Hints:
Layout (H helix, E strand, L loop, with lengths): L1 H6 L4 H22 L8 H18 L4 H33 L1 H12 L5 H37 L10 H32 L6 H20 L2 H12 L6
Helix pairs in contact: 2-8, 3-7, 4-6, 6-7, 7-8
Amino acid sequence: MQILDRLTLFTVLDFVALGLLFLAWFLIGWLIQHPNRKRPSVSVLMARYRREWMRQMVTRQPRIFDAQTLSTLRQGTSFFASAALIAIGGALAAIGNAEQLVGVAHDLTLNADPKFVWVIKLLVTLLLLTNAFLKFVWSHRLFGYCAVLMGAVPNDAKDAAALPRALKAAEINITAARSYNQGLRSIYFALASTAWLAGAIALIAAIAATFAVLWRREFASNSRSILMQEDDTTGHTQS
């Protein structure tokens, strides 16, 4: 009963905003990974080029360029994993000092919400940051698997195992990139969730802005237009 009593500290609008947060997080991810065939997302377009990259790697000698490119991708996942871990530490520290946060909020907004409310709001941000960290760590490991598969591709392009192994490396590379992108989206929505500290209306506005930014970058950005032009000129079919 005590937990139910504490939940009454939140308004209906708070619960609606929280539901919208997770709905938008799930929906934009689903739209990016399952776009309309006539309007592919940047992630889907890049997956095609990742497969083409591995096909070209089979005949490229030496393969130093491929190793360096993959190393750069791993460095990116490592950086964001470290950043997410630091942010998790910051969120935990804020939860541990929620009384000070309540005092600051009271001074700035005259908001008299009790400590429990602020802790729950920070826990939502912490949940998203933790998911981001796990996605980045898994992406880093998958890029490592990809490196092993690339190393297993025979130097002789005529070897029967060369292309199949390269295509396996491509699929692992794509899976790693998918986890990386999921981690980035979690970071985006973790930042949006901090707006809840200012109230449900602020959270809803932040969710709408975040959703719009992600949608634009995947479906209406200049980089996507460039990828589509290249895709058209090479004669690849859209799928």
